[in-house]
């Protein structure tokens, strides 16, 4: 049981032990709206890992809606969003200020905000050795609680198991390995949750980041940092950049490989501890971003003088000169923070049984066309999409996906989904926008209120009733 030491409390500080008192559900798992006329800001996930993001327009099999001939709907924008609500305004802070912000969030009982702040801080390249050590000291116990602790639904609301629903289906929906989902719910390899169980979910995809200079391997989910591992015996052939980790399960044997390098074999006894722990967490294919590998400087070539030149035989093959590597021009670089998303929600509570429009505007802030921008909206069980406008796309149960499109320089596109309200209470819809060419991933989660019945106009009572008119 990988959580035995964590839950036993052995050798743990009072601050770490206090995390066990965290509620089953985090109050800030989803941002609440002070007013329905305002929206929450999305997360921009830049390339901390080079994970390949799936195309949301592929699954499931759903009907295609025709492109409307009319102009895209005009939607009055609400609050402009660029970063996640849990980390809004933190990018401009120094590392020391972010640490203070995270400690204050922990003191205020806002563990999820502290977790996201520290995950953001850990990606900073300007961290000192002391700041990095302190970040890990605060972040690792939080990640164990938020990501791995069963029955603690702190990152996302739990999924209630219904008839016919399996772990594999839920894992596919959240882009996470089924083995990982089983691990965080303390389920065995062949065990399925029972009807009505609350299943803990984490958003994927998974990604690994190896800092070769520190021999440090970190595991990340789409929600943030998950776990750190030490990897001492690094292969000599590692190269900086994105690499694909392949996990293969053949009967009772599990192997993990990187290109032609064998990283783990369950039948061997010499595998690194890091891969033994990761063997049951990774997907069949996981991206690992490698950095910090020392690059070998090329040898300098000194031209020989005429007296030192040797005569080459006519039979000897001619050696082709080495061409210099092409320089990277500004035109070949993807612009940073060039996309922005504005999310629009109904300004007032919605009555059950009625329809409501949910929209978003994707803005290209750069002077280059934004290629293959895709958008998808996920709805909670109380909301059901029925129609899309603004671009071609597909509608399925609980989601609406727009086909990838190109946004002109300094231009924007308005997309809208008509959804019916089937249940009252607090409903959630989640917007995801991706541009793989620019390595951009924007996410926003918004809450709306649904009423059990339509709101009634207020009753007006007159304190002084007019006298009846006199008869003449």
UniProtKB/TrEMBL annotation:
Residue ranges occupied by any LysM domain in the UniProt entry: 157-201
Biological classification of the source: Bacteria, Pseudomonadati, Planctomycetota, Planctomycetia, Pirellulales
Domain of life: Bacteria
Protein name, as recorded: 60 kDa outer membrane protein, serovars L1/L2/L3
Region (Disordered): 50-71
Organism: Blastopirellula marina DSM 3645
PROSITE patterns membership: LYSM
């Amino acid at each position: 049981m990988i959580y035995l030491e964590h839950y036993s409390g052995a050798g743990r500080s009072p601050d770490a032990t206090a995390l066990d008192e965290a509620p089953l559900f985090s109050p800030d798992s989803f941002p609440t709206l002070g007013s329905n006329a305002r929206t929450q800001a999305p997360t921009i996930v830049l390339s901390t890992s080079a994970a390949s993001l799936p195309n949301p327009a592929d699954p499931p099999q759903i009907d295609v809606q025709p492109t409307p001939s009319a102009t895209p709907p005009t939607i009055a924008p609400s609050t402009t969003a660029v970063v996640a609500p849990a980390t809004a305004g933190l990018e401009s802070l120094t590392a020391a200020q972010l640490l203070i912000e995270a400690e204050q969030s922990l003191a205020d009982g806002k563990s999820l905000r502290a977790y996201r702040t520290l995950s953001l801080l850990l990606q900073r390249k300007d961290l000192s050795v002391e700041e990095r050590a302190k970040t890990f000291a605060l972040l690792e116990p939080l990640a164990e609680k938020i990501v791995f602790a069963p029955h603690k639904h702190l990152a996302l609301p739990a999924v209630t198991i219904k008839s016919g629903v399996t772990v594999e289906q839920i894992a596919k929906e959240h882009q996470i390995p089924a083995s990982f989902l089983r691990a965080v719910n303390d389920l065995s390899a062949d065990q399925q949750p029972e009807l009505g169980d609350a299943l803990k979910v984490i958003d994927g995809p998974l990604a690994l980041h190896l800092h070769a200079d520190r021999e440090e391997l970190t595991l990340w989910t789409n929600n943030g940092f998950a776990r750190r591992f030490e990897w001492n015996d690094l292969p000599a052939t590692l190269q900086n950049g994105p690499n694909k980790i392949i996990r293969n399960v053949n009967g009772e044997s599990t192997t993990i490989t990187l290109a032609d390098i064998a990283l783990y074999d369950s039948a061997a006894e010499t595998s690194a501890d890091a891969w033994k722990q990761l063997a049951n967490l990774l997907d069949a294919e996981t991206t690992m971003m490698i950095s910090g590998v020392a690059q070998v400087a090329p040898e300098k070539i000194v031209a020989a003088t005429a007296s030192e030149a040797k005569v080459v035989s006519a039979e000897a093959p001619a050696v082709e000169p080495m061409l210099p590597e092409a320089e990277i021009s500004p035109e070949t670089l993807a612009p940073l923070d060039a996309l922005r998303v504005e999310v629009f929600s109904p300004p007032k509570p919605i009555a059950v049984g009625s329809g409501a429009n949910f929209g978003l505007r994707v803005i290209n802030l750069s002077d280059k066309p934004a290629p293959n921008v895709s958008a998808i909206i996920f709805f909670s069980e109380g909301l059901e999409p029925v129609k899309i406008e603004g671009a071609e796309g597909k509608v399925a149960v609980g989601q609406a996906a727009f086909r990838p499109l190109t946004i002109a320089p300094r231009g924007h596109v308005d997309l809208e989904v008509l959804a019916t309200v089937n249940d009252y209470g607090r409903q959630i819809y989640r917007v995801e926008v991706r541009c793989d060419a620019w390595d951009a991933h924007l996410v926003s989660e918004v809450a709306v209120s649904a009423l059990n019945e339509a709101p009634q106009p207020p009753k007006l009572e007159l304190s002084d009733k007019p006298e009846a008119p006199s008869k003449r």
